[in-house]
Specification:
The chain has about 325 residues and is α+β, with helices and mostly antiparallel strands. It has 8 helices and 10 strands. The protein folds into 2 domains: about 1-180, no CATH class; about 200-330, Rieske Iron-sulfur Protein (3-layer Sandwich). Helices cover about 50% and strands about 15% of the residues. The strands form 2 sheets. A 6-stranded antiparallel sheet has the order 1-10-9-4-3-2, with no helix packed on it. The structure holds FE2/S2 (inorganic) cluster (FES).
């Protein structure tokens, strides 16, 4: 018990030490610039590539999903290697272990690209630990590639050693990755669904809402942004789901509300993400006008589904999604 507490303290101390290394910021920003330059070379396709790397279409971050491939495949190779070592002689599973290492390398490359895409939007402490997390993964990838090449008859041991060291690096990097999610909330949905009003509550006199200007109001226990757009009044969450930017500082662009921090764009009628890095939609609320007051409430699951369906249909037709139900019922 005392030993476990000690190792936990050491692990936390190591993470804290990494996060204090301000000198890591210089190479970090250089890498970010190179990355941005590379993506800009793709021209009109850059947004599609970005969306694919973040998992915007998927509706959840792609990086943690892909991470499971190298973790599982390399873990299986380690188990097979351990069986062979325990038996003390080469076994037929040697080629299976090599195949597992190969699958892990392919998955690791894909996970690295998605991780890099997510990491470029972090700052300060999470950016530093994210950089070390990435470097450890790159080293592990190199060791497993060397292991894959070495795993030929008569040279198995060298490959197994490289895999063993590589897996230790993957575990250390996994600890940093966990810290990024749990402590720094990277890759989690930052929109606030906690105290959304289940029944209509009045939030603002209709005459006080200007056209096209995001306006912050309080609805029950939750902050909401009201927007009058093309004769409709829409109500969306106050925080960007990506990293929690105040959407009241956002602006309208082609039927979307743009996040002021990293430029994610959300459909104003449905909250769906049109362009990342956000992957989760912006919460949308049902609105109506009563006695000159704008009222709103959270949507029921059926209303939510209806809106998502309308958005998907609109996107399939290549048109802007309809805003049925999102607008103000007069
Ligand atoms: S906070 Fe990053 S896109 Fe909004």
């Amino acid at each position: 018990m005392a030993g476990r507490a000690l190792s936990r303290r050491r692990a936390e101390g190591a993470v804290a030490a990494i996060e204090r290394q301000e000198w890591l910021d210089t190479p970090s920003y250089r890498i970010e610039h190179v990355l941005g330059f590379g993506l800009n070379l793709l021209g009109g396709r850059a947004e599609q590539v970005r969306n694919a790397l973040h998992g915007t279409r998927l509706g959840e971050p792609l990086h943690p999903v892909l991470n499971n491939i190298p973790l599982g495949a390399w873990g299986a190779a380690i188990v097979l290697d351990s069986v062979e070592l325990l038996q003390g002689r080469p076994v037929r599973s040697g080629q299976t272990a090599r195949a597992c290492v190969g699958v892990g390398i392919v998955g690791g490359l894909a996970a690295s690209l998605t991780g890099l895409a997510d990491w470029q939007y972090t700052h300060d402490r999470p950016r530093r630990s994210g950089l070390v997390h990435g470097l450890l993964n790159v080293c592990a990838l190199g060791l497993f590639t060397s292991s894959w090449r070495s795993r030929r008859p008569g040279r198995q041991r060298r490959g197994q050693l490289a895999s063993g060291v590589g897996y230790l690096m993957v575990l250390a990097s996994g600890h940093l990755g966990g810290t990024l999610v749990h402590r720094h909330q990277i890759g989690v949905d930052h929109s606030d669904h906690g105290l959304e009003p289940p029944r209509f509550v009045a939030v603002l006199p209709d005459r006080d809402l200007p056209e096209g200007v995001p306006t912050h109001v309080q609805a029950g226990g939750v902050g909401v942004i009201l927007l009058r757009h093309e004769g409709q009044v829409v109500a969306v969450g106050e925080h960007c789901p990506h990293l929690g930017a105040p959407m009241v500082d956002g602006w309208l662009y082609e039927n979307t509300l743009v996040c002021p921090w990293h430029g994610s764009r959300f459909d104003v009628g449905t909250g769906a993400v049109v362009a990342g890095p956000a992957v989760a939609p912006l919460p949308c609320y049902q609105t109506r006008l009563r006695d000159g007051q704008i009222e709103l409430r959270r949507r029921t699951p059926d209303e939510e589904l209806a809106h998502r369906g309308a958005a998907a249909q609109g996107q399939r037709r290549g048109a802007a999604p309809e805003q049925t139900g999102a607008g103000l019922a007069r």
